[in-house]
Write a structure and sequence with these properties.
By secondary structure, the chain is mainly alpha-helical. It has three domains: 271 residues, no CATH class; 87 residues; 137 residues, no CATH class. Helix content is 53%, strand content 6%. The chain has 20 helices and six strands. It has a four-stranded antiparallel sheet with strand order 3-4-5-6, covered by helices on one side. It has a two-stranded antiparallel sheet with strand order 1-2. A hairpin with a 5-residue loop joins strand 3 and strand 4. The N terminus is likely disordered. GO terms for molecular function: DNA binding; DNA-binding transcription factor activity, RNA polymerase II-specific; zinc ion binding. It comes from Coniochaeta pulveracea. Keywords: DNA-binding, Metal-binding, Nucleus, Transcription, Transcription regulation, Zinc. InterPro entries: Fun_TF (IPR021858), Transcr_Regulatory_Proteins (IPR052360), Zn2-C6_fun-type_DNA-bd_sf (IPR036864), Zn2Cys6_DnaBD (IPR001138).
Length: 576
């Protein structure tokens, strides 16, 4: 501490302060060379240059620094800057006023909206810095900006039913192609900077294609990005320690890994029950005690590991079922995950008590949404060793009701009023690429067989029209309602059931608890086993509803219905 004071005093007497420089130099009270978009002083010191007002996004955390050359400490993984080329070529890369307008739109609208309730250095700092130093990233974010801007300002289908792309689509594709071409030299270089540029661009491609409704291409980009990240781990880290997220520090590597981690979790929740492993997570979960969380990022980091432990258990349970072997050894593993979830909840409750009272509505939403996902994980771990047993969910109706109550509290914090766009178009102004409410609502609608509860979840899905990464609210609501229609076919005939409006407006969560046992339980023979929606076409024009059916002596995964987005109609393919 005394040494820190001495250095600070020396700085004040020997160095002039910066009044017009970047935020980082102002905080350090050193002279800034005012390089654009990142200053040379910050690059040389290995610090995050938070720019000149709009570039930083308010993230002033710098737990990790890159030591000066020759200091004998640190590693390439610790750097928090990415600039590999001077920004002087920006005027050459952006040749029109339209391109510069899209870049401005990205600064003020896209980069602040797409992360949703969770602020990340990837969106607020890294992406802009990389875009101003690498043409591949720059063209990718201009294409992404055009998708969002066009969706907000133009309420019309994008290239729907047309063989020739419209002007906006051509603009998007032009920059999309330029971004891919600009990546070719990086694939040949295969050094640290090249891998980072490729990974950052890949995240933008995933976000862009998910927003456009090109979900198949977006999934391909995500899988390629995860493979590239696995391949790059030896280059991006100088040690042999596992390549994973460190929630207590801010660095380029951590921002990239964090974003891939969240996209992976989002997609795995969409693909259930057919989860895919990810090298970022050790399949053997360690139930070490969670003492406390110092940030929302740390809480998500721990919950990511718990979710992936649940996915691993589910995969192993399906393997045991197919091989007709005992799954008893998995129960100890599940017990460890359950303990981990309980410890997480205690740490989360303590963390919530320390939050200030003046949080914005968006910040409050972020802290509450993660609690919803903990409830979802608690249900999933309880049934993960019961593959194909749809009646196992009946023991957890209280958790489904609690989940809906959490979502109602979040809904009350909404600042925006959603306006239904025509047809199957989405509400782009409310769309994000991070975690939101759609996945828990869909899970409740198809897995909770209490009529009042699942109807309440469906009505919440039908009241919104945005996207959350791969999750499309309109598609999700259509599939959930189709599942309920198939499962409850004629079972409640002659029974007094609430209509759609009643389930949405008149029945509170307390009413749901009271009426849980007022209706007969849906028999197991009526239920779809392992219902799954599959998005087809690129852009998506059809949705296939799959389930597992017993055919002869074997279980087979077959499509039972198909939804056409253009006509907004279902076609039954086979009876359940």
């Amino acid at each position: 501490m005394m040494q820190m004071k001495t250095v600070s005093k020396h700085t004040r007497t020997c160095k002039s302060t910066s009044k017009s420089g970047c935020r980082t130099c102002k905080l350090r009270k050193v002279k800034c060379d005012e390089g654009f978009p990142v200053c040379l002083r910050c690059q040389t010191a290995g610090r995050v240059c938070e720019g000149y007002g709009i570039w930083g996004g308010g993230n002033g955390v710098h737990e990790e620094r890159q030591p000066p050359a020759g200091s004998g400490t640190g590693s390439p993984a610790s750097t928090t800057t990415l600039a590999t080329r001077p920004a002087a070529g920006l005027a050459l890369w952006l040749s029109s006023s339209d391109e510069r307008e899209h870049l401005d739109w990205f600064r003020y609208r896209t980069a602040t909206k797409l992360p949703g309730s969770f602020r990340s250095g990837f969106w607020s700092i890294l992406l802009l810095q990389a875009g101003f130093s690498e043409p591949a990233v720059l063209h990718a974010i201009i294409a992404l900006s055009s998708v969002q801007k066009g969706g907000i300002l133009q309420i019309k289908p994008q290239n729907e039913g047309r063989a020739v792309p419209d002007e906006q689509e051509r603009f998007i594709l032009r920059h999309y192609v330029k971004a891919i071409r600009s990546l070719h030299p990086h694939f040949q270089a295969r050094d640290q900077a090249a891998f980072r540029v490729a990974l950052i661009s890949c995240i933008v491609f995933v976000s862009l294609d998910f927003l456009r409704g090109h979900f198949t291409t977006g999934l391909v980009h995500l899988q390629n990005g995860l493979r590239l990240l696995e391949e790059a781990q030896e280059i991006l880290t100088s040690t042999r320690e596992p390549f994973c997220l460190h929630p207590g520090r801010e660095s380029v590597n951590d921002w990239i890994i964090e974003t891939f981690t969240r996209l992976h979790l989002q997609v795995q929740l969409f693909r259930q029950p057919h989860h895919q492993p990810c090298f970022l997570f050790d399949p053997v979960f360690s139930s070490a005690p969670v003492r406390s969380f110092h940030s929302l990022k740390a809480a998500w980091h721990e919950l990511d590991w718990l979710f992936n432990a649940i996915f691993h258990l589910s995969r192993q349970a399906h393997v045991c079922e197919r091989a007709k072997t005992s799954s008893q050894p998995l129960y100890d593993h599940r017990h460890g995950v359950e303990i981990g979830l309980l410890r997480w909840l205690r740490a989360y409750e303590v963390f919530m008590e320390t939050l200030p009272d003046d949080l914005s509505l968006e910040e409050q939403r972020g802290y509450r949404i993660i609690g919803v996902y903990h409830t979802l994980a608690t249900i999933m771990v309880a049934v993960c060793l019961c593959p194909g047993d749809e009646e196992a969910f009946d023991a957890h109706t209280d958790l489904f009701i609690h989940l809906l109550s959490q979502l109602e509290e979040i809904r009350a914090l909404a600042e925006e009023v959603f306006v239904a766009p025509p047809g199957h178009l989405i509400y782009m102004a409310g769309s994000i690429v991070d975690m939101g409410c759609l996945a828990p609502l869909y899970y409740t609608a198809i897995k909770c067989r209490v009529h009042h509860v699942r109807l309440k979840a469906i009505r919440q899905l039908e009241s919104t029209f945005h996207r959350e990464g791969i999750w499309d609210a309109k598609i999700t609501a259509r599939v959930a309602r189709k599942v309920v229609k198939i499962e409850e076919r004629g079972f409640y005939d002659g029974t007094c059931v609430p209509d759609v409006a009643m389930a949405d407006k008149s029945l509170s969560v307390i009413d749901l608890c009271e009426q849980e046992h007022s209706m007969p339980r849906l028999p197991g023979s009526y239920r779809l086993r392992d219902a799954e929606m599959v998005l087809a076409g690129d852009p998506t024009d059809r949705v296939l509803l799959y389930c597992t059916l017993r055919q002869g002596d074997a279980d087979r995964r077959v499509p039972i219905a198909q939804y056409h987005l253009a006509s907004q109609r279902w076609v039954d393919l086979v009876g359940p």
